[in-house]
Amino acid sequence: MTIRLKPEIEKKLQERVKAGDYGSAEELVNAVLEQYMSDDFEPGEMEKLLAVGEQQAASGQLVDGEEVFRRLKARSDARRRGA
User: Fold this and answer.
1) CA angle 39-49-32, nearest 5°?
2) 61 to each of 2, 46, 76, 79, how far by Cα in Å?
3) 69, containing H or E segment
4) Can you give the pLDDT of all 83 residues of the chain as single tens digits?
5) Tell me, what DSSP letter sits at residue 25?
């Protein structure tokens, strides 16, 4: 299969591989697609999650954006290791 990427996407992909986050572009694309396909929601589930988030935000239960990205990266790393 051959897939064409937008130049800006290809550049970001190459940067992530060069940084050592992934062993190859193929590994990165597979990881992203696996994550994307595993995040399917049941009908109405997304709306429920958004409502919970809105309630938490309204009550001051917020998490710093950098902390969110740190947690997401750790989760992604664990999935790649098969943990």
Assistant:
1) 20
2) 45, 19, 24, 27
3) helix 65-81
4) 788 889 999 999 899 889 988 889 889 888 888 877 776 777 788 788 889 888 988 898 887 888 888 888 898 888 888 76
5) H
